[in-house]
Amino acid sequence: MWRSMFSIASLLVIAAAWILAIGIGLVVVESTAVAAAPMQRRAAAAGLPDFWPPFAAKPVERPAVPRKAAKPARRETPPRTADRPAAEPKPSGPLPRPVFSEKEQQLATIPGFPGTRFWADSAGDYEEALPASRGDWLVLSSGAQDSAFGAGFLSGWSAAHGRPDYSVVIGNGTAAFAAVYAFAGPRYDEAMRALFTGIDAGDVFALRPTAESLVETWPFKRLIARRIGLDLLGDIAAEHAKGRRLFVLTTNLDAGRSVVWNMGAIAAIGGEAALNLFRDVLLAAASIPGICPPVYIEAEAKDRRFLEMHVDARVTGTFYVAPDAYIVAGGARLPMARLYLILNGKAVPEFASPERRLTSIRERSSAMAMVSAIRGQLAMVHQAARRDGVELNVAAMDPGFESVAQGAVSSRYMTKLFASGFEKGRRTRFLGEYRYLPTMSLLGGAGGADASK
């Protein structure tokens, strides 16, 4: 009976995640169609690069074009720079990719980086990658720009009480960046704050649709290169050497499975190649499929090299604790003593009347899909924690938080959300009893703590 319930819940979680991704994509497309032209012209006049428009409130009225308009003068193509790649001719069909087999994918490793990743559903590989002893675990859910809540919560927690030295830190989606900083230690709290409050759409997207995405993400790749350097890589490697573990998830679209990257093991190898792989994994973790281009990571099998296609792990779940074999009834015992789970989203349904317009209905549906996905996974993890005597501590965005995000990436919205998370983290007292989400009958009883107390 339990296995059946968990299977149904898993399907509901995956369906909700896909609804959420589709909703986000449709909202972005509509905003782009309305706002791109005027904002691109203003950016060009100011000498700025192309960027993804953050918001559009009204339709743009375009002047009529005469039937026999004069042929415009030919403009010179701007020189290619390191920051902005030159435009490439649009292909008429699918982009070419080297063909490789399922067997080769099963045997694939990253050249020069053996043992630095494993399949998220592989119980054996998961167990081998874990620390020798049980301890405190930190898990951060995906949430796009809502990951600013988790970053703020961690900063407030550190400022008020001091955070534990988590034996394992796991990040999903954009929260992977917060996971990296949290693993490296409180001295990186300011860098975490700057990242989650100081960027806008132009730092992440470039409005240049391709055959595989609606936007390009070279601005984000440039931003990652500025924020993730060899010094940080060295600090991650030092913590890994102490026996701690940092995991970040991506989805391998070729295999149809999630991949767990042992970021500390990558950092421990060191050098420019390790830094580039570390950055590529973080970029892939935040790349929403269909909107952002996938990240191609070189792999090899049987002396043959090929490129794997990786995207955001939210395709298969909002957060990751363990393979299904550890979650379902009768499975393996959860390997942590205490689990701190930060949900970068609202986990309680709330009343809101959408307007009778397409974007409002889509946004409301996407928000509901996120809540459903979070609650479905949380229910399964809660049951496993109760069964194994693991103290489960949960924090989520306040249901009363009311700030409207002006587009896909808004520094104003993320700054407000970071401040809300900081205050919640500052006043947190984990009480050792489960009193979170009282309206959800599946989560009643003992076994964890509510971070809102």
Fold and architecture overview:
It is a single chain. With 453 residues, the protein is of the alpha/beta class. The chain has one domain (102-450): Cytosolic phospholipase A2 catalytic domain. Helices cover 41% and strands 13% of the residues. It is built from 13 helices and 10 strands. The chain has helices at 2-45, 102-107, 123-129, 147-160, 175-184, 189-197, 218-227, 230-241, 263-269, 271-285, 324-327, 358-388, 411-426; strands at 117-119, 136-140, 168-171, 245-252, 257-262, 295-301, 304-312, 338-343, 391-396, 448-450. Strands 1, 2, 3, 4, 5, 6, 7, 8, 9 and 10 form a 10-stranded mixed β-sheet that branches. Helix 7 (218-227) crosses helix 10, helix 8 (230-241) crosses helix 9 and helix 9 runs antiparallel to helix 10 (271-285). It is globular and about 55 Å long. Residues 1-9, 11-15, 17-65, 72-82 and 432-453 have low confidence and may be disordered.
- In one word, what is the shape? globular
Main sheet specs: 10 strands, mixed
Multimeric state: single chain
Helical fraction: 40-55%
* Topology order in helix (H) and strand (E) letters: HHEHEHEHHHHEEHHEEHEHEHE
CATH class category label: Alpha Beta
Number of strands: 10
* Tally of structural domains: 1
Uncertain segments = 1-9, 11-15, 17-65, 72-82, 432-453
What separation lies between the terminal Cα atoms? 34 Å
Number of helices: 13
User: In percent terms, what proportion of residues is strand?
Assistant: 5-15%
User: How confident overall, as mean pLDDT?
Assistant: 79
Structural class: alpha/beta
CATH architecture: 3-Layer(aba) Sandwich
